[in-house]
Amino acid sequence: MTHARGERSALCDLLDRLGPDAPTLCTGWTTYDLAAHLALRERRPDAMGGIAIKALAGYTASVQNGLKARHPFPELVGLVRKPGGVYGLLPALDEAVNTLELFVHHEDVRRAQPAWQPRELPADLEALIWKRVSTGARLMLRRSPVGVVLHRLGGGVALGGPRGGSRVEVTGRAAELLMFCFGRQAHAQVELTGDPGDVARLREATLGV
Predict the structure, then answer these.
(1) Burial of 163 by CB count in 10 Å (0-12 exposed, 13-18 middle, 19+ buried)?
(2) Taking 90 as the threshold, does the pLDDT of residue 97 lie above it?
(3) Which among 91, 33, 96 has a CA at the least distance from the CA of 67?
(4) Considering the domain 123-204, what is its CATH architecture?
């Protein structure tokens, strides 16, 4: 089983267990909303633009709400459980495109629940996450107000944010750095070192792809 399929299966098992009204780390979204987002992302390419482009967000939201209206929660989770569109036909593409997306959203659900604990990840998944973080740091941290130096526990350094000026050092495991860079700063187990004002600004910044 690929990592994308493993994260997909574990996320859907968790969604089934928690039901439609559980909180997530996605602002304003319940587990029902998150399931609709994931189904839309794979099965309604016409509505994907609004995920990244504000001008199209209204249409995307209407399609997402329509999915919730047409599909009971268990049925919607069932749609997410099976890779849709080209991802169902090309497992390699599913792995390349969806591993981080599904990992982060799995953690969005896990970390929004009481008494969550970090997972022990397989070494190859941790390495894959770090590879994606280290190559994508500039993109994910492009809106950072300060320079950022990512330090992976176990080895590895990546840079992001403005190239000049002050910097904040962010240290943690690859998965925690990923959550931080995806805008989940308050829920990432990392250590931040730098000027207190810079650290505070970085914690509140809008990060992510």
Answers:
(1) exposed
(2) no
(3) 33
(4) 2-Layer Sandwich (3.30)
- Whole-model pTM: value is 0.92
Report the distance separating Cα 16 and Cα 31, nearest Å.
10
Query: What dihedral do alpha carbons 138, 201, 102, 37 form, nearest 10°?
Result: -110
Mean per-residue pLDDT for 179-186? 96
pLDDT at 51: 76
Among the listed residues 26, 181, 23, the one whose alpha carbon sits nearest the alpha carbon of residue 112: 23
SS (H, E, C) the chain: CCHHHHHHHHHHHHHHHHCCCCECCCCCCEHHHHHHHHHHHHHCHHHHHHHCCHHHHHHHHHHHHHHHHHCCHHHHHHHHHCCCHHHHHCHHHHHHHHHHHHHHHHHHHHCCCCCCCCCCCCHHHHHHHHHHHHHHHHHHCCCCCCEEEEEECCCCEEEECCCCCCEEEEEECHHHHHHHHCCCHHHCCCEEECCHHHHHHHHHCCCCC
Of the chain, the percentage scoring pLDDT greater than 90 comes to: 75
Structure tokens at 199: 């650290």
- The rounded distance, in Å, linking the Cα atoms of 200 and 182 is 17
Q: Indicate the domain borders of the chain.
A: 3-110, 123-204
